[in-house]
Design goal:
Distance between the termini: 86 Å
Strand content: under 5%
InterPro entries: DUF247_pln (IPR004158)
Number of strands: 5
Pfam family, one: DUF247
């Protein structure tokens, strides 16, 4: 059977029937790809980005704790309708900044910001789809806003800003940042480089008081040599760069009857602990009493401890730590677990999860010490009764609406985290478990 030439032509693909159209379409595609490449920000360099969006695995069930509520800083949340009021406030603060002296000119500020554009774009871990003028305007307006905010705070002139507490909370969100060197440059122009160190220490003091730990107000942490942004500074004010490990006496027995144990008894104790954990893992496999199911008993004792109710039932005393150096300053000695006082409010809750997200993003560069603390909180609180016990002990102040809300927060705080077996509080976990599972049998 013969097929006509007309049918052959009809069945041909469009690109073969009309080759000149195919060529034009290919050229159009080529041009569109080139255009997209040309509009991308500068090439990404490994380790150069310091400002990022929180990954999905960390933001699950905590979405509202990473998004600003009052003011947008930087490009990630720029342009949202709910920030219209503070966008107008930014222009007023720019005017106030330029009015600080005749030595400050808009032309000079814009010129200096433009010189920093390339470096500033590299700080973001994704392409910022803004042209040069728009990007530099955001850096100028937002830089002047945060600078004037703290200068007015220092001068007790924040009455013009509604919701100032919420503004501070927004300034400490991982996704709501501009590079610190932009703020430094504007400070040098407006105030003077000779006063920059004092201003940074002032910020460090305020950030150290914003966290959940109730610390001595006279302790002013030293800022790091290089500051990436406000969250980075706040992290170093909350967690020392090289904090000392928790006090856990290794040469003493956890047994209240024996002040000292020979090494052989200590070895036997460890073996008994491993066996107890192996048995308990199977007994409580379907129970909510132990919050994290681990196949390996050795790993389990490093990653979870009994909750406050179980610890108290086992005769372990829970006490607030006197004069702690930082929020990780926890100790376990002679059946007494000492913990720094914590005040959990909506603001400190938001800051805590953002500091954890920042730490998790830099896990290859820094120890996950705050993530270890989150494991501790998640273990300590399983039910509202645990919250009540910690409040009665003077360790915890609950500024949320209910004990149930705080319980839910602690139980979700570790979601998406990655923590190594040798985390900061691992030895303390091991010693608490050694006492609990060796010298106390939980009721069935």
């Amino acid at each position: 059977m013969e097929i006509s030439t007309h049918e052959e032509t009809t069945n041909l693909p469009f690109t073969k029937k009309y080759p000149h159209y195919a060529e034009r379409a290919e050229l159009h595609l080529l041009e569109s790809i080139k255009c997209k490449l040309d509009t991308l920000s500068l090439p990404y360099k490994i380790g150069s980005s310091t400002i990022f969006r929180v990954p999905y695995k960390l933001r699950q069930s905590k979405e509202n704790l990473f998004a600003p509520s009052v003011v947008s800083i930087g490009p990630f949340h720029h342009g949202h309708p709910r920030f219209e009021t503070t966008e107008e406030q930014k222009w007023q603060f720019l005017r106030d900044f330029l009015s600080r002296g005749d030595h400050i000119s808009l032309n000079h500020c814009l010129s200096e910001i433009s010189k920093l554009e390339e470096r500033a774009r590299r700080c973001y871990n994704e392409s910022v789809p803004l042209d040069s003028n728009r990007f530099c305007l955001i850096m100028l307006l937002d830089g002047c806003f945060v600078l004037e905010y703290f200068l007015k705070w220092y001068g007790h002139r924040l009455n013009s800003i509604g919701h100032s507490v919420f503004v501070l909370s927004d300034l400490l969100l991982v996704e709501n940042q501009i590079p610190f060197f932009v703020v430094e440059k504007l400070f040098d122009i407006g105030i003077g480089q000779d006063q920059r160190e004092d201003f940074t220490k002032y910020l460090a003091y305020n950030f150290s008081q914003a966290g959940p730990a109730v610390l001595d107000a006279s302790i002013v942490p030293d800022p790091p040599a290089e500051i990436h942004h406000f969250v980075h500074l706040s992290y170093h004010c909350s967690i020392p760069s090289d904090p000392s490990k928790p006090f856990v006496p290794s040469s003493e027995s956890c047994c209240p009857c024996c002040p000292c144990c020979p090494s052989m008894l200590s070895t036997i104790t460890n073996l008994l602990l491993e066996f107890s954990l192996w048995v308990l893992t199977r007994i409580f496999r379907k129970s909510n009493s132990l919050s994290l199911p681990f196949q390996n008993p050795t790993r389990k004792r490093l990653m979870v401890i009994p909750c406050a109710t179980e610890l108290q039932n086992a005769g372990i005393k829970l006490r607030p730590k006197s004069n702690p150096d930082h929020m990780l300053d926890i100790s376990f000695h002679h059946r007494v677990l000492e913990i720094p006082r914590l005040a959990i409010t909506n603001e400190s809750k938001t800051l805590l999860v953002n500091l954890i997200a920042f730490e998790q993003s830099k896990s290859d560069e820094m120890n996950a010490n705050l993530s270890s603390f989150a494991l501790f909180l998640d273990s300590l609180v399983n039910t509202p009764n645990d919250v009540m016990i910690l409040q009665k002990c003077g360790i915890l102040h609950n500024g949320l609406d209910s004990d149930e809300e705080l319980t839910d927060f602690f139980n979700q705080i570790c979601q998406g985290m990655v923590v190594k077996d040798d985390h900061f509080l691992a030895e303390l976990f091991a010693q608490v478990n050694k006492y609990f599972y060796t010298y106390f049998v939980p009721p069935s």
